[in-house]
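User: Teach me something about this protein's shape.
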Amino acid sequence: QLMNYGGGYTHYDKAEVGGLLKQSSDEGMLLLSGSTNLYVFAHDRIRQALLEFGKERDEDQDRLAQHISQVLLNSAKGPGMDWCLFVAVDFANSLPPEKAMNSVNLSKLNLRVSKIASEMGSMEKANELLRKGLECLNTSKSLWEDYALTLELYNAIIESEFNLGSYGESRSSIDQVLKYAETLDDKILAHVHQLSCTEKETSDHAQVAVDGCKILNLYGLGIPDTLTKVYIIKEEAKSKMALKYGSYSKLTKLKMNGDRGIFW
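Assistant: First, the predicted structure itself:
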């Protein structure tokens, strides 16, 4: 891009810019993309370059980290640029609180990048970013003040810890959601994972069934000890009303939530 547009480096001619890019590539700082024929940062070397640059010039490394993080965020547009977000969030997370970006914005950035990490199969990295996002909110005393963001983070951590087999950590977040979430709908993921954690930890299926019935009662879905014809008729009438007297085949069109077999 420097070669195509000058990039503001008007004191270099095309050959000089090409030489600088080639030198940076030889030193491992830039990689020449075979698909686009453009140079991109070798992102695992950016932090090293920052430290060396700051040391040589006696620069404020926190200020440099702020600047590079912002440049990378501005560059993270289009396909193949997700790496900019990963490096930017690592730089932003490394800054002391007094020099970091707004805590809520940093929390949202961690959440955003955690989703990308999860999609890439990097569950540990996703979990690390989610934890950092929650820490940002807690440090700024915004925990549950930004209700939607806090709930999304806790729900993501519940799933992340559960998928990593950290059932105790998952339960800690479950407890927070069950304590502070405002509606039963907001608690449903926590309730489901509460049962799942019990099943994984104890294999006590009878207890899971008992606890599950208690949770169903909270949602007005009580299961009677014995079935009677009257009960069945009443429940069938409720179902038809819920379906607006349509066919039960409507149930096949409900969206499934992931691979857990839960209807939302």
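Now, about its shape. The mean pLDDT is 77. Residues 184-202 form the longest helix (19 residues). If you'd like, I can walk through any region in more detail.
User: That's plenty for now, thanks!
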